[in-house]
UniProtKB/TrEMBL annotation:
This is Rieske (2Fe-2S) protein. The keyword Iron applies. InterPro entries: Rieske_2Fe-2S, Rieske_2Fe-2S_sf. It comes from the Bacteria. Gene3D superfamilies: Rieske [2Fe-2S] iron-sulphur domain. The keyword Iron-sulfur applies. Keywords: 2Fe-2S, Iron, Iron-sulfur, Metal-binding. Residues 10-103 form the Rieske domain. It comes from Pseudonocardia humida.
Length: 105
């Protein structure tokens, strides 16, 4: 079942679904999206699969500016999806609204 859509994005449910410092994958409008909750509580979102080898980015290590793919350790920027090896992952705006995760595709 896909996330409910509103005029301001796709609501994915309570922010507590994603523990601080971790990521989780969600189905959003037919797309797999990884949502990350950084240590400062902010949210970031990318496509759920690494473009290099399909690794599960939701399982990657986080720092404030990037996620590291668990398969081959490629770091993807939350700002623009770029990585040093030249590949790019799609990034999406994500935020908390009324205690819920909201992602815009």
């Amino acid at each position: 079942m896909s996330a409910p859509t509103t005029a301001t994005g796709h609501r994915l449910g309570p922010v507590e679904q994603v523990p601080v410092g971790e990521g989780r994958a969600f189905a959003v409008a037919g797309e797999q999206v990884a949502v990350f909750r950084l240590r400062d509580g902010t949210l970031r979102a990318t496509r759920a699969r690494c473009p290099h080898a399909g690794g599960p980015l939701a399982d990657g290590q986080l720092d404030p500016g990037s996620v590291v793919c668990p398969l081959h350790l490629r770091a993807f920027s939350f700002a623009d999806g770029s990585c040093a090896e030249g590949e790019r992952v799609r990034v999406f705006p994500a935020r908390v609204a009324d205690g819920e995760i909201v992602v815009e595709l």
